[in-house]
Amino acid sequence: MALVLAVGGGAWAVVALSGDDKETDSGRKKASGDDEGPSGEPKGPALPYGQQVGLKKPLQAGDCVKAVWSGAAFKSVPNLGVVNCTEDFPDGQVVSVDTAADYADARTAGAGRCERQGGPIAGALPDADVYAVLPTKRGFEAADGGTACLVLGRHVPIGGEVGRFRDDGTKLSFSQISIGDCWVYKDAGENSEAALTDCADLHTDQVIGVVPAPDDMNYKKGSANAAKLCGNKFESTWAPDSERVVFGWVDDEGNWKEGLTKVICTVGRADNTQTSGKIPAPGAA
Fold first, then answer.
1. What angle do CA 46, 110, 114 make, to 5 degrees?
2. What SS3 class is residue 111?
3. Which pTM value belongs to this model?
4. Buried b / exposed e across 205-234, counting CB within 10 Å, b at 16+?
5. 283: left (phi over 0), alpha (psi -120 to 50) or beta
6. Least confident window among 27-41, 93-107, 113-127, 203-217
7. 21 CB contacts (<8 Å, ≥6 apart)?
8. Cβ–Cβ contacts within 10 Å for residue 169, how many?
9. Spatial contact of 250 and 263, defined as CB atoms under 8 Å apart
């Protein structure tokens, strides 16, 4: 997995975590795992989220997962496995667990509460969505009454932790980057990297937004025009003078072909020197 910064016709590759990509479709759904056999009789021990999801233990906030969908992504029930967040290139992460008063409360309101809790995190990422993993009736106690609120990549795996679960110094993959992030970019050919940092500390870039590439734009044109796409939307407000410049980032060609055709936009100093302090959004008090 490579992260590519494209600006002014040039491009720098940023090495990130590697792993297998999975094809997914867009959408949003809640899991409704079935833990009964054809006769309607329970089969096996009570699993928190049912047989299709397959987990024997309830998910916890911070868990990273691989997801294998039984049908269309986000519109079917996934089989989930908990994996290492930094080594296994996960599809996504549990960002919170919503505890319901009872099974009926979980089934009727759990997904909505997950959307409110996970939506801002997913919305700040370039290509993510929320998925609520609800307990089954039999598994309600095994799940500790919890609905697991996942943030998953829509077209490719997120590849690591998201939001508050990331530590300063994390070498970011494209899908982990959130609006508001600051990072230090180090250009060293194949060993280049973008490391997350507190905006109060020295950094080279601040993420200001995401723009979609036109539907008919291929990767070569998307990479060449990334800075222009970002500049058209953000330059007049975020870089109105010669001291700042807007940059455009795209993911690698393989992920572009999988459907991740978003451009991440950052602002930094025109002379490429580091700065400290977060730039407030235009119009913010």
1. 115
2. helix
3. 0.84
4. bbbbbbbebeeebebeebbbbbbbbbbebb
5. left
6. 27-41
7. 1, 156, 157, 254, 255, 258
8. 10
9. yes
